[in-house]
Design a protein that fits this description.
The structure is a homodimer. Chain A is an alpha/beta fold. Chain A contains 12 helices and 12 strands. Chain A folds into 2 domains: about 260 residues, Rossmann fold (3-Layer(aba) Sandwich); about 100 residues, Rna Polymerase Sigma Factor, Chain: A. Chain A is about 35% helix and about 15% strand. In chain A, the strands form 3 sheets. Chain A has an 8-stranded mixed sheet, with helices on both faces. In chain A, helix 2 links the parallel strand 9 and strand 10. Chain A starts with a strand and ends with a helix. At the A-B interface, helix 3, helix 5, helix 6, helix 7 and helix 8 of A face helix 3, helix 5, helix 6, helix 7 and helix 8 of B.
Amino acid sequence: MKIETKIAHFQKPLYLESGRILEPWHIAYETYGELNRDKSNVILITHALSGSHHAAGRYPGDRKPGWWDGLIGDGKGIDTRKYFVICTNVIGSCFGSISPISPIYPGSSQEYRLKFPVITIKDIVKAQKILLDSLGIRRVRAVIGGSMGGMQALRFGVDFPNFADILIPIATTYQTRPYVIAINKAMSEAIKGDPRFKGGYYDKEQVKKEGFPGLATARMIGYLNYLSPATFDRKFGRNYVKTDGMFQLWGRFQVESYLEYNGNNFPKWFDPLSYIYLLKAISLFDIGRGYSSLLEAFSQIRSPLYLISFTGDTLFFPEEMRQIKKYMDIVGGKCRLFEIESDYGHDSFLVEISKFDYLISEILEKGLEKRK
Amino acid sequence: MKIETKIAHFQKPLYLESGRILEPWHIAYETYGELNRDKSNVILITHALSGSHHAAGRYPGDRKPGWWDGLIGDGKGIDTRKYFVICTNVIGSCFGSISPISPIYPGSSQEYRLKFPVITIKDIVKAQKILLDSLGIRRVRAVIGGSMGGMQALRFGVDFPNFADILIPIATTYQTRPYVIAINKAMSEAIKGDPRFKGGYYDKEQVKKEGFPGLATARMIGYLNYLSPATFDRKFGRNYVKTDGMFQLWGRFQVESYLEYNGNNFPKWFDPLSYIYLLKAISLFDIGRGYSSLLEAFSQIRSPLYLISFTGDTLFFPEEMRQIKKYMDIVGGKCRLFEIESDYGHDSFLVEISKFDYLISEILEKGLEKRK
C-alpha cells in the first residue's frame, strides 16, 4: 500500500459559518493506494475527536499503526488495491492543519490561541471539499467516518449533495444531544479550570514534558463513554493494582491505573486548545442549522445513506441513528440502517472492525453497481 | 415535627477496617419526631455522597429543606407522627462528623488532611451503630437509604443482622462496578490535579470564597450520571443561553450554564478532601469483602430486604439490584424488589419521591405486622 502524507496550503480565504475568515490556511492529509486515471476511485475517510489524517499504515518506528488500520489497506474492508483513500486532519485539530496553535500569519511567532475562530463541522467539511477540488477530485465513491467523522459524512451529504456516491456515517448523530454537550462541557471545564491553561497561553513544550492534569482528566471523562459499563467489567473487573494498598488513599483499582496511564499520556500527543475547539464543534453540530427544519436538511441528501450503529453505544445512542433513518424515509431518501450487536460501547467503531468491515466492503461494491 | 441537631463525641477508639484508629471521634446527627417509651419506633436514614444528616425540615433562613424532606415528615411516606427518624452525617463527610478537615487532637490547629485514614462503608455503619447504642437504641424499625445510603443499609444487614426489622436499600449496588470506580476516579483526579489542592493543604476559606475549579469539574462529572440522557433532553434541549454568542468559544448551551452554576457552587458547601475520601469509600464498597463469597455475605442478612430501583438509573443499574434479589433467593433470605419506572436517572431516589413514598409507607406498616 502506497502512503503519502502532505500539507496543502491555501491563500484564498476560508469563509467560516461564524462569519470569521481563515486566510491563509492549510490542511494536512494522507492518502493510501493510487488514484486511477479518471479519478473515480476516491474514498474520503473522516476522523473523530482525537483522530488524525493518519488513518492507516505505520510511520517508521511507530509502535501502533493508523487508527483505522484494521479497515483500510490491501485486501481489507476498504481495499487500497482498488480505492484511493484520503483522510485529512480536520481544521482545528493539532496534527498539521490550521489550528489554535498555528501562527496568525505565516512565519509570525504569534499564535492564534483563543483568537482562533470557533469552527463547526460545516467548516471542517468545507475545508476538505476545497482540498479535494484542488486535487481535481470533484466526486468521491464514499465518505466514511465514525463519531465526529460520521457527522462530517452527514454534513457532506447535506452541503454537497452531488459529491459522494455513498455516505457511511457510523456511531454518530444528526444533532448533538444535551447529554453529550454536558460531557463536552465537563471535559472543557477540566482543561480551562487548570491554572496551567493560563487563559490559553500555556507553554506547549511544558505541557508535553510536565503534563497537564486538566487535559488528563478530560481524557478520563471521555473514556467513561467511549467504553461501556460491560466493557469496564470485562476488561478490569474489581481487580486492584497488586502493589497498591487497599486502604491507601491513592491506592488504585486496575481500571484507575488504566485511566491514569491513558489520561496522563494524552497531553503528550494532543493539544488542550484543539481539544476545546473540537468539543465546541461537536456540541454545535446540528444537521438542521441553517434550514427551516431537520426534514428540510435531510431532503438535501441525494446520496444513498448507509448508517451503522452499535447497540451498546452510550455516547451516540442507536435511537439517534434510527431517527435519521426515519427522517430519510419521510423525505424519501435512500437509507439503510445496520445495527451491529456489540456491548463494547462507543469505541466499537474503532475496536469491533471485524463486525462491520465486510459490510462496508459490500456497500462499496453494491454502491458502485448502482452508480449512474 | 420536632427537629433536633446534635453532635455526639466519643472518647473510645473507633477501630477501622484499615486497621487504623480514630480516637477521639464525633458524629453529627439529626432527629425528627419523638422516640417512644420502649424505643421501638426508630428509623435510621442513611445519606448519599453529597448528603448530610439534614434530611428533612428547614433551618431558619434556609431556602431549601433537607434532602429527603418530601419523604420524611408529619403524614409523609416516613411519618414522623409515628416514627422517630435519625439521620447521621457519615464519618468522613464535612457537615460536622469527624473528617479529613477535623483537628487531629481536640483543640489542635493541625488537621488530619491526607493523614486521615481511608474509611469504608463498613466503618461508616459501625460509627452509626455505636452512636445508636449510646442513645440506648439497640434495634430499629428500618434502615432506609439511596445510593451510598443504600450501601449502608445493606451493610447494616450483613454486619448487624439483628439490628433492623427491615432494610430498604434504594438505587444502589452490592459491589461497586469498575464503571463507577472509573467515574469516581475521574472526579477524584479533577480535584487532585487542581494545583489549588496543594497536596491536601488547601486553604478552606479560600476554596469557599474563590472557588475550586477541580471540585467544580468533579461535580459536573457527577451530574453526567445523576441525570439520564432523557432528563437532559427534557430539562434543557439544545437551547442556547440567550445572551451568549453561538460562535463564541465560551458561549453556552443552557445545559452548560446549569452545570457551571451547580459546579461552581459546590465548593462553597462541600469540602474537596471529604469528597475524595467518600469517593474512595464508594469505590471500595463490596458487600462480600471479608467473606469467602458474596453468597456467604448475603446469608448473614436476617432482616427482610426491600429493594427499590429505577429503570433509568445509569449509575447503579437495575440489573445490579436484580442480582441482589437473586443472591437473596439463593440463600433463602426474604427479599422483594420494586423496579420503579422512571427515566429520570440515578437522582430518581431524590426527585421521584411520589413514585415510591407510598411503597415505603406500606413496607413499614407490613414490616411492623410481621415483626416477631
